[in-house]
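== Protein entry: sequence and backbone fold ==
=== Local backbone shapes as whole numbers ===
==== Amino acids and backbone structure tokens ====
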Amino acid sequence: MSVLSFLGNVNIAIRIVDKLYPKAQLYEVDGTTSDGKPTTDPIKINKLRVVFTADEGTVLINSASWGEWNAPTYIPEPWLEDVVIPFPIDMDIVDAQAIKDKAGYTTEYAAVTLRWPLYPGTEEPYYIFSLKNHHVFVGVYTKQVFVENLKAKTKP
């Protein structure tokens, strides 16, 4: 028996939302641990919220458990500061974690977000790992890593 991957779980959410909102497009996936504790294990990022743009508003769907989802909620307001993520993508959270770790960022993180920030020069979606004092970004296409220091608000 194989374990449902992070992206496989997201794909279930996409299919559920697509049935009700056929023009919905993926904006971001926010994940935390179900116990709320920081982790170094991407498998423990198992509490998900997936955000879509749809019908000039926003659709949110939250995981009930791994592979199971609550009903989607429509909000008649746009979600701002994201670019649509063309799905499917090839990089799963486990791959992003391995790239992050290889770059030397091996400490615990409280959350991971998959999103394509609406920001000049940003040309791909990222897995964004929220560490204690900074965010580590792993590019989905380029596999490049960069850090945003939350205290200094600078990017190297």
